[in-house]
Design brief:
Shape: extended
CATH architecture of the largest domain: Roll
Number of strands: 19
Number of domains: 3
InterPro entries: DNA/RNA_pol_sf (IPR043502), Rev_trsase/Diguanyl_cyclase (IPR043128), RT_dom (IPR000477), Viral_Replic_Matur_Polypro (IPR051320)
CATH class of the largest domain: Alpha Beta
Structural class: alpha+beta
Helix content: 25-40%
Strand content: 15-25%
Radius of gyration: 38 Å
Largest sheet: 5 strands, mixed
Protein name: Reverse transcriptase domain-containing protein
Number of helices: 17
Length: 572
C-alpha cells in the first residue's frame, strides 16, 4: 500500500479497490462471497499490508481488541484507517523533531526567479558565507541517563564513569565483530560424532549409498591394539567421492554415535572396513544404519505412497495374518514358549535363594509372552465422552492391508487413518498405528489424578524385598464400551474396523488403566503394592511377609488371573 500522498483514507480506499480488481480479474469473486470467503479476504488484506509497522499494529489490535476485523471487511477498513493515521502523525512528528535537532530549515517549495541583467558579469558577486558546522546528533540515548545526547556531554556522569562506559561499549563492539568473523568456522563443524571402542572420538557422516561402514588408515593405526582384525582379499567400496577405493582390512568395533537427542549404540559389534582414504570422518554405511532401524529406501517408498489425507502407508502387498478365534485351543508351541519363560523365572528365583517362589509361579495361568485370544478383563468398560456439537471424524481409505482385525462395520460414520510402520530392520516386522489425534481433540478427557512417584515411593521406605509385574499389552486387555467402539473405527482399503478393546493412543487409556488397577487392588495399595499404569511393584520388609502376600486368599496372583482375568509378562 503506497503512502506517498497526504490523505490516509484515500490510500486505504485505493488499497481495497485494487484488491477487488485483482479478485474480479481472476474470476475469484464467488470465492470471497460467503462467510468463510469473507474471512479469507480479510486474512489476505492483512497479510499484504505495508509498511511492516502498519501490518504489525493491525495484527496486534485484531488479536487483542478488534477480533471482528478478521471476518468483517468494513471493520477492517476502519481499523486500517485509524492505525495508518496514527503512524502518519508519528512520522511527521519525528521528522519535525529531526529537523529541529539538526537546525536545518525546510527549503521553500516556490522558486524565486530573478531577472538576468548580464550573462557574463564583469565582477564576481560576493560569495555567501558558509554555514557553521552543525552538531551531529547521537545515534542513540546516553547509556548513563538515557537522554538524547553524547556520553561526553552527559552532566550526571563523572569522568571515571565516562571512561568505563566508553571502554565497555568498545569491548562489546569488538566481541560482536569477532563472533561474525568466526561464523564460517562454526558452520563447518558437524553435530554428529562417533566414539570407537570408548577411546577415539571422530566426526561421522551417514551415507546410505555405501554398503559398509569405513574409516581411514590413520585412525586404524591409532586403534590397532583395540581391534580384532580380519584380513580380506580385496574388497571394492564406492566412497563419497563416487570413486572406487580398495579395502584390505575389516575390524569389529564397538560404535557409539552421539546425536543431539543423546547417544545411540548398537547391541552388537559393527563391521568396519579400513580404506586408504583419510578425510577425518567415519563413513556410516548402510550396514550400521540398517542395524539401527534406518532404511532410507523404505522411507522413500512410504513417502511415495502418501496422499492428501495423510500417511497412506506401505506399498508392499502383504497376506493377511491367520485369524484368531476366541475359544479355540492354543498351539502347543505357544504354551511351550510360556513354560520355558516361566522356568527361567524359577531359575532366577533359585539363584536368589528363593526356591519357595516356584509354587506361586505355577499357581495360576497368568503368564503370557504376547496377547492371545483371551477374553477381556473382568473390569468396568471404558466409556468415552464427546464434547457437545462434535461431528464424526472421517478419512480417506489407506493402502495398507489389514493384518490385525477384530470386527468390521461397513456403515460406520467414524473413520480414522491407519498406517503400518516397521518395528525393526526385518522387512515383515510391522506395527499397526492409528492416528487418534483427531478423535482425542473431540474427546472430553477424563479428569483424574495420577500418583506422584516421589511421594508414593515413600511407602516402600525400609523394605528389603521387591518384585515388579508388567502387564502384557495393558490397554488391549481392558474392554471398550460397545457404544464407543464406533468412535475409534479405523479404515483400510477394504473395510472399516471397530476395536473391541481400549486402543493404544486413546486420550483416556492411561488414566483409565491407572484408576482401574487402583480400584481392584485397594486392599494392598500403598501397604505392599505400588501401581504406575501397567507396572505393579510388590514389596515387603521380610521374605515371610512377601510370601504370605502371595499365598493368602485373594492374593496378588489370584486377583490378577482368577478374579480379574489379567495377564502379565513372563519376560520381566
Amino acid at each position: 500500500m503506497s503512502m506517498s500522498g497526504s490523505n490516509v483514507t484515500a490510500w486505504v480506499v485505493d488499497y481495497f479497490k485494487r484488491f477487488q480488481m485483482i479478485v474480479a480479474d481472476n474470476g475469484l469473486t464467488e470465492c470471497f462471497s460467503h462467510e468463510r470467503g469473507a474471512q479469507q479476504k480479510c486474512k489476505r488484506l492483512i497479510l499484504s499490508l505495508k509498511p511492516p509497522a502498519l501490518n504489525q499494529e493491525v495484527k496486534q489490535r485484531i488479536r487483542n481488541i478488534h477480533a471482528d476485523a478478521k471476518k468483517n471487511s468494513k471493520a477492517l477498513f476502519t481499523l486500517v484507517v485509524e492505525k495508518a493515521t496514527e503512524l502518519e502523525r508519528q512520522f511527521i512528528r519525528l521528522k519535525l523533531q529531526k529537523q529541529e535537532a539538526s537546525g536545518r530549515e525546510e527549503k521553500p517549495k516556490v522558486k524565486l526567479f530573478v531577472e538576468k541583467v548580464d550573462s557574463k558579469p564583469t565582477t564576481k558577486p560576493d560569495a555567501k558565507p558558509k554555514p557553521a558546522n552543525l552538531p551531529i546528533p547521537p545515534p542513540g540515548p546516553c547509556p548513563k541517563c538515557s537522554e538524547l545526547h553524547w556520553l561526553r556531554e552527559c552532566p550526571s556522569a563523572t569522568e571515571a564513569e565516562k571512561v568505563e562506559l566508553l571502554k565497555r561499549f568498545r569491548n562489546a563492539r569488538t566481541t560482536k565483530k569477532a563472533k561474525l568473523k568466526r561464523l564460517d568456522d562454526l558452520l563447518q563443524t558437524t553435530d554428529c560424532a562417533v566414539m570407537l571402542n570408548g577411546v577415539l572420538e571422530l566426526p561421522c557422516h551417514p551415507d546410505s549409498g555405501s554398503d559398509f561402514t569405513a574409516i581411514g588408515r590413520s585412525h586404524w593405526d591409532q586403534l590397532t591394539s583395540w581391534i580384532r582384525r580380519v584380513t580380506l582379499g580385496t574388497s571394492a567400496l564406492r566412497y563419497r567421492t563416487k570413486r572406487l577405493v580398495t579395502a584390505t582390512l575389516k575390524a569389529k568395533w564397538q560404535v557409539q554415535i552421539h546425536t543431539a537427542a543423546g547417544p545411540v549404540e548398537p547391541m552388537e559389534l559393527v563391521d568396519v572396513l579400513v580404506v586408504d582414504v583419510d578425510d577425518g570422518e567415519l563413513l556410516v554405511g548402510n550396514n550400521l544404519l540398517t542395524t539401527l532401524g534406518i532404511d532410507v529406501d523404505r522411507r522413500l517408498e512410504q513417502l511415495a505412497c502418501r496422499d492428501d489425507a495423510g500417511p497412506a502407508g506401505d506399498p508392499i502387498q502383504l497376506d493377511d495374518d491367520m485369524p484368531v478365534h476366541v475359544g479355540e485351543p492354543f498351539s502347543i508351541n505357544g504354551d511351550h514358549d510360556i513354560f520355558f519363560a516361566v522356568e527361567q523365572l524359577i531359575d532366577r528365583a533359585v539363584d536368589c535363594r528363593l526356591p519357595q517362589v516356584e509354587n506361586y509361579v505355577h499357581a495360576s495361568d497368568i503368564w503370557r509372552l504376547d496377547l492371545r485370544a483371551d477374553p477381556p478383563a473382568n473390569v468396568p468398560l471404558l466409556e468415552v465422552q464427546l464434547r457437545e456439537g462434535n461431528r464424526p471424524a472421517k478419512c480417506k481409505p489407506t493402502k495398507n492391508p489389514h493384518t490385525y482385525t477384530s470386527s468390521y462395520n461397513t456403515k460406520s460414520q467414524w473413520s480414522i487413518s491407519v498406517l503400518l510402520v516397521k518395528k525393526s530392520a526385518e522387512l515383515m516386522d510391522l506395527r499397526k498405528t492409528v492416528d487418534y489425534r483427531t478423535m482425542n481433540a473431540l474427546t472430553d478427557i477424563m479428569v483424574a489424578v495420577m500418583p506422584i512417584i516421589s511421594l508414593v515411593s515413600e511407602n516402600a521406605h525400609g523394605m528389603n524385598h521387591f518384585d515388579i509385574f508388567d502387564f502384557i499389552n495393558c490397554f488391549r486387555q481392558l474392554p471398550l464400551d460397545e457404544l464407543c467402539q464406533e468412535l475409534f473405527s479405523y479404515m483400510t482399503d477394504e473395510k472399516i474396523f471397530n476395536p473391541r478393546r481400549v486402543p493404544q493412543g486413546c486420550a483416556d487409556a492411561a488414566i483409565n488403566f491407572q484408576k482401574t488397577m487402583e480400584a481392584r487392588f485397594t486392599s494392598l495399595l500403598y501397604q505392599h503394592l505400588l501401581i504406575w499404569i501397567d507396572y505393579l511393584s510388590l514389596y515387603a520388609e521380610d521374605i515371610e511377609t512377601y510370601l504370605e502376600k502371595l499365598d493368602e486368599p485373594f492374593s496378588l496372583l489370584f486377583l490378577l488371573m482368577d478374579h480379574f482375568g489379567l495377564n502379565i509378562s513372563a519376560k520381566k
